[in-house]
Amino acid sequence: MDHYRGGDSALNEQVLWHLRGPYDHQAMTRAVAALSARHEPLRTTYPRGRRLRQLIHEPQPVPVPLTDVSGEAEPAAAARRIVAAEVSTSIDASVWPLRTRVLRLGAEHHLVVLTLHHYCSDDYSNALLARDLRALYGGEIGEPVDLPAPQWQYAQWARWQAEQLSGANRERLTGYWTGKLAGARLVELPARGRRPVPDGEPPWISVEHYVDAQTTAALRQLARRHRTTLFPVTLAVFYALLHAETAAGDLTVASLFANRGQPQVRDTVGFFASMVLLRERFTPDTTLAELIGQTRTTVMDAMRHQDLPHQLLPPDTVTGGTGRTDDVLFQLLGSLMTRADMAGEELDDMEAQLERRRFALEFVVVPQGDVLSALLLCSRAEFDPAWADAFVRDYVTLIRRAVADADVPIAELRAAPVT
């Protein structure tokens, strides 16, 4: 991704933290330095060369500039512009992987911004950083600190992974994925095609619709009946929608897994997330309940074999079309790690993540308290905004129909009544 898309913001991660009440900037500066000392990837650079390698630096002070936007006519809008600029400005990881900034929106309202190169963080790690920074700042202002020490730093895990990806284990993992994906083809959406982007229009389309609390509760019950979580259920509905769009009964979509099977990395910051390809085959007569059961098995099998990086699969494992295997991606945000900050204003950090330009079509389901948010981020040069809006609306409708009757065949789900 760095090679093909490194010129945009695809390789930026961002963590935002709103502070309400009294604020001590010197304490925050010390907390950020302690955070960098605690997690080696925040002070690891990647020198340019034929092979990617980590150069870990000793702990050192970290600059934390403070920008006051409280005098602006609309401080929140001014802060949003700065945050957007931060996440869209690339980071040269050969120089330093982390930028920090604090914005003052009011006398007792501050926003801490951590912008990181993707080499050193992922969604799970972002949640760890948010947790740790809060605790370390609390310690600097006199509150008790109770943080578990990371058992492994990222470099230790990288060495362990290299050992795992050799010999018989590498053959076992490669054998599973090549067998699972034999004959798989890229998803070819009829709505996809090259189209000019009007002047002044953003290059990416972002659409969001909500699943109401009653339907979300029913969806969770449906997952429990199938002895699974929301991820396979929401993914099964996504397969059903792709089938309605393409008429294909053999669908392969990409997703991101936490890839933290080793307990030693529970509190380790780094880029662990592994892309996996989830293939499902079914007929128009397959019911949604049956598809949920199949998807549950597919996801569990993929979790057991997620150690093999997607990039190590043989070339052309998935064929067809002119796109890439990661062009259509589905994920349940928060499935990597429960976010302690997934409420209210703190959702700003999720919004910032979705501004990254990563995949041609990225579909994300986000638990937000009692409701679910369904978000689509796709390329304006390849998809029509009206189609994108209808696609997300149809997904929400299919969820409502699924909880009304999961025994409806996939071919009839789009037309099934909603009770």
Automatic annotation (TrEMBL):
Origin superkingdom: Bacteria
Classification via Pfam families: Condensation
An individual GO BP term: enterobactin biosynthetic process
GO molecular function: 2,3-dihydroxybenzoate-serine ligase activity; phosphopantetheine binding
Domain (Condensation): residue spans on this chain: 7-414
Entry-linked Gene3D superfamilies: Chloramphenicol acetyltransferase-like domain, Nonribosomal peptide synthetase, condensation domain
GO cellular component, one term: cytosol
Identification of the protein by name: Condensation domain-containing protein
Taxonomic source organism: Micromonospora phaseoli
